[in-house]
Design a protein that fits this description.
Helix content: under 10%
Oligomer: single chain
Shape: elongated
Radius of gyration: 23 Å
Largest sheet: 9 strands, antiparallel
Structural class: mainly beta
Strand order of the largest sheet: 1-2-3-4-5-7-8-9-6
Number of helices: 1
Strand content: 35-45%
């Protein structure tokens, strides 16, 4: 709600009383840090974002809760549709819808359409990149992947990742995909490396 107050003249500048503790905001880099809390709709999806800034060099953490329809890291058939939760360096959750209009169903397979496992794996990797935090992350290794049930047209897949190791250049996660109330796929390790990391053979 916006309230408009008629202007009766110049607005005096308040002068803080001595010892009141009120004064100008600390300058950037002063070590005092800052906290910004923003609530309200994001992309008309009703998300809430809480961002805490650096405090005494402790770094920052971003926590997002609620559906964020605009956030689809990776995009395309291998991304996800709604980000439900993201705690950088800890965990993330998202939903991926599987429409019957995906071109892969044309020949995979004509009489029994199945979402290719590689696309499901890419959805997990996209969510893992979200949990890894800011920067450009690429999938470096995958271990312990199991596909337990088919995913087909009309299914809605709930994806979760848990960060098991986190650093500035490498992050490892484990991931689970569920559809229809049952686990359809798991990945024991999704290893991501920062694009700032030198690739083998290029140094």
């Amino acid at each position: 709600m916006t309230t408009t107050v008629p202007t009766a003249g110049p607005t005096p500048t308040p002068t803080p009383a001595p010892g009141s503790g009120t004064g100008p905001a600390p300058a950037p880099g002063s070590g005092a840090g800052s906290t910004t809390v923003t609530t309200g709709p994001v992309a008309d999806a009703g998300s809430t974002t809480v961002t805490t800034g650096p405090v005494a060099g402790a770094g920052s953490t971003t926590v997002t809760t609620g559906p964020v329809a605009a956030a689809v890291p990776g995009g395309g058939p291998g991304g996800f549709d709604r980000l439900l939760e993201a705690v950088v360096g800890e965990r993330a959750a998202a939903v991926r819808n599987v429409p019957a209009t995906l071109t892969c169903f044309t020949d995979h397979f004509p009489r029994h359409p199945v979402l290719p496992g590689v696309l499901l794996l890419e959805s997990m990797a996209a969510l893992a990149r979200t949990a890894a935090g800011p920067g450009t992350w690429r999938l470096a290794a995958v271990r312990g992947v199991r596909f337990k049930h088919f995913v087909g047209p009309g299914d809605q897949v709930h994806l979760t990742v848990e960060v098991t190791a986190h650093g500035p250049h490498r992050t490892e996660c484990r991931a689970t995909a569920r559809a229809g109330g049952r686990v359809v796929a798991t990945a024991r390790v999704l290893a991501l490396v920062s694009d700032e990391t030198t690739r083998e053979g290029t140094a």
